[in-house]
Design brief:
1 helix; 3-stranded antiparallel β-sheet; elongated; YjdM
């Protein structure tokens, strides 16, 4: 049986300790049953209205978003083509015309 990688640091050197899985590199502990359940749900990212997003989709921004560290703003209605889904808090990786590469949260976009 192959143990899953650590959800915290992605280390492959996890081991079992009773009913828990432990990462020796970052000391993160999690239950084995939760790891199996999260593996099924991890791939589903939904937009603000509940549509499932996939790599390559076109989305529209539903709220003015300030770009951190600059005076730029991504305006409501901005279309973003060819998105890429990534793991993390900001789960959409994209390129916006006039601004460049950005990461967006799926809660602020809608699938076109």
């Amino acid at each position: 049986m192959t143990l899953p990688a650590c959800p915290n640091c992605r280390s492959e050197y996890t081991y079992e300790d009773g009913l828990m899985l432990v990462c020796p590199e970052c000391a993160h502990e999690w239950s084995a049953s939760a790891a199996e359940a999260s593996a099924d749900d991890a791939a589903v990212i939904k937009d603000s209205v509940g549509n499932t997003l996939q790599d390559g989709d076109t989305i529209t921004v539903i709220k003015d978003l300030k770009v951190k560290g600059t005076s730029l703003v991504v305006k409501v209605g901005t279309k973003v083509k060819n998105i890429r889904l990534v793991e993390g808090d900001h789960d959409i990786d994209c390129k916006i015309d006039g601004i460049g590469a950005m990461k967006l949260k799926s809660e602020f976009v809608r699938k076109v």
